[in-house]
Write a structure and sequence with these properties.
The chain is built from 2 helices and 4 strands. It has about 70 residues and is an alpha+beta fold.
């Protein structure tokens, strides 16, 4: 399970699974704790995401798994 929060610390998305679907990633979960979500992340969107990151942000993203939780 993975959760994505708003800046006010409200739960925005609750992702229950990430699976490969051909060349894409399929995300399943709920939005705002009620609406079911099934979203596809395509390779070109991942490339666009990575282009938005500076070197410092990319390094931060890679080291995030080793950091303490905010809560």
């Amino acid at each position: 399970m993975m959760r994505i929060y708003t800046p006010q610390n409200d739960e925005l998305m609750h992702i229950t699974s990430v699976k490969r679907a051909g060349p894409c990633l399929l995300l399943k979960g709920k939005i705002m704790q009620t609406m079911p979500l099934s979203a596809e992340v395509r390779p070109e969107e991942i490339r666009k995401f990575l282009k938005m990151l500076s070197f410092k942000e990319l390094f931060f993203l890679l080291t995030m798994v080793f950091r303490k939780s905010v809560n």
